[in-house]
């Protein structure tokens, strides 16, 4: 197997693993995965900025903004009350801050948003034990929308 084919095989395997994780994850776990994805993209954007890789910086910041927009779109303002409203405002602030960070090549702004996302992730991770006991999940051998919860 050539070096390029080996990398492609590893990439395919990683994508399959991610797809499986997404298909079997609870709603709580999906949000956690999105938060981790946004943090990863901001880490990559930070490194790209440090090394003057403008295209990589822009692509990673754009990806992070897309993830944050997805998190924002998932909020249920009516049922979530003040918490959802505050998260909506915070996600909006993060998006605007990242746009400015990208335009101004401002590492501090990228790091500020990373810090905010880390705090949200820590809080989300902190409620995991309560949520895991309350959110039904389909067993690994049952596939589809009619799968019965086993936890």
Quick tags:
mainly alpha; Four Helix Bundle (Hemerythrin (Met), subunit A); 6 helices; disordered C terminus
Describe the structure concisely for a colleague.
The chain contains six helices and no strands.
CATH topology of the domain at 26-125: Four Helix Bundle (Hemerythrin (Met), subunit A)
Measured distance between first and last alpha carbons = 42 Å
Q: Can you name the CATH architecture of the domain at 26-125?
A: Up-down Bundle
Write down the Rg.
18 Å
Low-confidence stretches: 1-7, 135-151
DSSP strand tally: 0
Structural class by helix and strand composition: mainly alpha
CATH class of the domain at 26-125, anyone?
Answer: Mainly Alpha
Number of H/I helices: 6
Average pLDDT taken over every residue = 80
| Most strands sheet | none
Helix content: over 70%
CATH superfamily of the domain at 26-125: Flagellar protein FliS
What is the chain-wise order of helices and strands? HHHHHH
Q: How large a portion of the residues is in β-strands, by DSSP E?
A: under 5%
Which word captures the global form?
A: globular
Description:
16% of the residues are buried. The protein is globular and about 45 Å long. Helix 4 packs antiparallel against helix 5. It has a domain of 100 residues: Flagellar protein FliS (Four Helix Bundle (Hemerythrin (Met), subunit A)). The protein is mainly α and 151 residues long. The N terminus and C terminus are likely disordered.
């Amino acid at each position: 197997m050539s070096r390029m084919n080996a990398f492609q095989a590893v990439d395919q395997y990683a994508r399959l693993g991610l797809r499986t994780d997404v298909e079997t994850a609870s709603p709580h776990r999906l949000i956690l995965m999105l938060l981790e994805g946004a943090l990863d993209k901001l880490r990559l954007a930070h490194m790209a900025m440090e090394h003057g890789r403008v295209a990589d910086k822009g692509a990673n910041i754009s990806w992070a903004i897309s993830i944050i927009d997805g998190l924002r779109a998932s909020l249920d303002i009516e049922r979530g009350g003040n918490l959802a409203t505050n998260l909506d405002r915070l996600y909006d602030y993060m998006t605007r801050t990242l746009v400015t960070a990208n335009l101004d090549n401002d590492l501090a702004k990228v790091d500020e948003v990373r810090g905010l996302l880390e705090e949200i992730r820590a809080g989300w991770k902190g409620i995991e034990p309560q949520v895991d006991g309350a959110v039904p999940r389909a067993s690994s051998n049952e596939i589809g929308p009619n799968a019965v919860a086993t936890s």
